[in-house]
Write a structure and sequence with these properties.
Number of strands: 4
Number of helices: 2
Oligomer: single chain
Distance between the termini: 43 Å
Structural class: little secondary structure
Strand content: under 5%
Helix content: under 10%
Order of helices and strands: HHEEEE
Largest sheet: 2 strands, parallel
Strand order of the largest sheet: 1-2
Amino acid sequence: MGLPFGEHCPPMLRVAALLLALGLAGAPAGAADRTLDQVKAALAAATPERPARLDGADLSDLDLSGLDFRRASLHGANLFASRLVNANFAGTDLGGANLNGAWLMGADFTGARMEGASLLSVVVLGGEVKKLPVFEHADLRGVRMIADLPGANLAGADLAGARIGVDIRNQGMGQMRTDLSGANLARCKLAKADVSRTLLPFANLGGCDLRGANFFRSKLAGANLEGADVSGADFTEADLSGTVLRGAKGLDQAVGLDRAENADKAVR
């Protein structure tokens, strides 16, 4: 598709134009208000008792690759189109942060507090680093996410109320969807999450809390839902070919199983 920018356009402007074109999010208001050296200095001076306070800071389009943010607080920070390759955010407060268009290859978000953060069109493929970001046990409640994360580790993450599904009203230039094919979501909390139209073939959802989750038209072929609680979950038009529902709880309270695709091919 033709986009209003060229290959030599700065990454921040390219991602902003793409998000605007797809109706997903607007560009940030201005340039970063911290330099890379200032961020490094704040991190170097941080202690467990006095973490680096970067709450609300505009760090958009900075190359923060490889930095250790475990002694920092980034609540509400703007990391739009920032390069965070191999950065360490384990246990870091990123609640409400804007990570739209950020480069996340190899980034570690284990146990990070990311409630209400936005991760639209994040970059996880390409470049020298081939490792996907890790979100194991992260707090992703209410997060807005459109991302390609096939095979990613989100085991034990809290995605209650997350908005991962496709908003058809904002898909005028072609449908973008989250790809969690083969991802490890074991023991995740996805209660009341919107996972509609998401790619989840062969994903591990074993033992998950899926109560009230919306799986409308999601691709769940070969996915493992063994031991998951699906009470009130909506599977209308979801692809259940080879989906393991054996041992799932609340199947009699799930919605739309009679309207799911290949429901007769699910493993019960």
